[in-house]
């Protein structure tokens, strides 16, 4: 069965400015997102990578969302840095570090 006949994505969340994470019945690989502020974390990455080593992440809302992924049956989640938050740069830095250590998908 072909669910998507045209295009590379099924859902566009690239304009979301906050939300901290996004889980959907649509696989993250089919979600169009803003690579600067939105990264994909798979269940395997959440279970296997040492994401807790990222300074400040474990006690942040982004870290809480990774914890939710670990305790759920979801295949992946999209972590979203809050574009309007005063600590936006810190959140984006955490997302980049997750990618650097292999705890989030590279773009």
Q: How would you portray this structure in words?
A:
The chain has 107 residues and is α+β, with helices and mostly antiparallel strands. It has one domain (11-100). 27% of the residues lie in helices and 15% in strands. The strands form two sheets. Strands 2-5-4 form a three-stranded antiparallel β-sheet. A two-stranded parallel sheet has the order 1-3. The longest helix has 13 residues, at 88-100. 27% of the residues are buried.
Supply the key terms.
alpha+beta, 27% helix, 107 residues, 5 strands, two-stranded parallel ribbon
What global shape is seen?
Answer: globular
User: How many structural units, i.e. domains?
Assistant: 1
The span between the termini is 28 Å
SSE order, as H and E?
EEEEHHEH
Total DSSP E strands:
5
Helix content: 25-40%
Given as residue ranges, the uncertain stretches (5+ residues, pLDDT < 50) are none
Give me the number of helical elements: 3
Rg, nearest Å = 13 Å
| Strand-pairing-aware structural class | alpha+beta
In this structure, how is the largest beta sheet organized? 3 strands, antiparallel
The proportion of residues in beta strands is 5-15%
The residue-averaged pLDDT reads 87
Strand order of the largest sheet: 2-5-4
